[in-house]
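ingest -> fold -> write
write: protein_1
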Amino acid sequence: MKLICIGRNYAKHIEELDNERPEHPVVFLKPDSSILLSKHPFVIPPFSNDVHHEVEVLIKIKKIGKYIDEKFAATYYDEIGLGIDFTARDLQAQLKEKGLPWEKAKGFDGAAVIGTKWLPVSDFETVDDISFRLESNGEVVQQGSTKEMLWKIDALISYVSQYFTLKIGDVIFTGTPAGVARVQENDKLKGFIGDTEMFSINVK
């Protein structure tokens, strides 16, 4: 099982972090050990003082694929999920400054939240206009729609498959909208697609 993550896929998020807009999707991986276990709290790691939440729509791959044409990409998934790509922003900044990989800032234990609920694609008129949000302590802190993606879901599947063989159970994190911010102890985070709660976690 691979966790394939897409960075810089929402223009306003690129702006809020003062990043350069990429010519192609930014792709990185998280190890399966980064998955936050079900019903466990997210524990802020001791090596960071600035862990940010990044809520993202997830795609679960249902069959093996390589060099997938975009027009066939929709046949490789039938479920939509929601999760969080936790990021140690202070550590990431240090690594970026030195031109080093991001894995320590993105792939640490518990850094990947995968909601236990998955919604069938048939629930949506189109996967290119799925509204989602993250609430922290009852207040909306991030919200967006897949229509705002620079690269839509099927385009991402096609692109990623040029480099990595997609296997059953692989999960693609499709990028985060603007509004990323530091999490603090005792925060309660809830993620929603439309009005459906997809996950709820406590921060410790």
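write: protein_2
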Amino acid sequence: MKLTLLRHGNTEGNLRGLYYGASDIPILPESEEELKARALKGGYPSANRYYTSGMKRAEQSFAALYGDIPHEALTGLREINLGEFEMRAYEELKDDPKFIAWCTGDNERNVCPGGESGEQVTERALAALKPIIESGEDAVIITHGGVIGGVLAKLFPNPKGRFLFTPVPGTGYTVEFEGTEPISYHRVPEDEENE
């Protein structure tokens, strides 16, 4: 079974360096055109089943890459809720004691004030993915960078954690499974470099 996890296209939040996750913002029009052009070049896998997180940026990215193929929204694959930090830039937050406390120490377990922790997001995403993986059918999912990074780090533990696997917008990974055990992964599209 092959599970492909792709990150949505670029948003204004990406360009402005904002902390955002639960904010349901769209992709940029130029990013939508870029995704359509990439789709025409190929390199994005097909599958038996298709999903998104249901967020606007994931839905728009799905349409740009896959058109009107039927798909299902899985809210468990939504991006982290950054609570009080949503839609705010580092410069605005850097002296905030709550932000400093969140950034210090265990960045997987620290909960954003009014939001979630990275660990909570990963656990809900894995719960949403469990029946998909157990079905044994190839699937493509358009979701979010933090979700992808957390899931891959859980499936393939490493010293850098989620940051090793957080893909740039419009890219992601295909994970190959034997039964329900992950055995390998590769970048998608394969000719793209993730950061």
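write: annotation protein_2
The mean pLDDT is 95.
The chain has one domain: 2-188.
pipeline exit 0
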